């Protein structure tokens, strides 16, 4: 009976060990599965964010190309004395449309620079509407705001972390 009892206790200990080991294995498998699922979710989130960032960068690029062309056309239409009123109006509308695209895709630094340039154009347009001559300081002011806009756009594409700290 002693051997039988010893065998019984040994088998019970082995069964208990197997149950505890199995429990830990099941728990470890569950934790591993949860971590795998969370990693997959994070990968999907990261991929979606990368796609959104890529889309935004492309939208900004397109908007900036359009507005830079519109700035040149509007500046020429305002500054050149031979420009007809209809051409000035068309250039103004093209600039306004491009400015709206920039306002949609941002960021704030570029929106602000575009707004300053727009206000400068409005001021020069008012001088023309009053049939006054364009003075050289007005052209310089347009050029200054144009340069500020280009600098703001350039910061969006900069790889330097200091240059892009204000760019979302």
Walkthrough of the structure:
With 168 residues, the chain is mostly helical. Helices cover 85% and strands 0% of the residues. It contains 4 helices and no strands. Helix 1 (2-79) packs antiparallel against helix 2, helix 1 (2-79) runs antiparallel to helix 4 and helix 3 (108-129) runs antiparallel to helix 4 (136-157). The longest helix is centred in the N-terminal third of the chain and has 78 residues, at 2-79. The protein is rod-shaped and about 120 Å long. The model has no long low-confidence stretch (mean pLDDT 82).
- Distance separating the two termini: 80 Å
Q: Report the sheet-strand fraction.
A: under 5%
Give the low-pLDDT segments: none
What string, H for helix and E for strand, traces the elements in order?
HHHH
Q: What does the radius of gyration come to?
A: 34 Å
Instruction: Indicate the percent of residues in helices.
Output: over 70%
- Helix count, per DSSP? 4
Give the overall shape, derived from the CA principal axes: rod-shaped
The count of β-strands is 0
Average predicted local confidence, pLDDT: 82
Largest sheet at a glance? none
Category by helix and strand content: mainly alpha
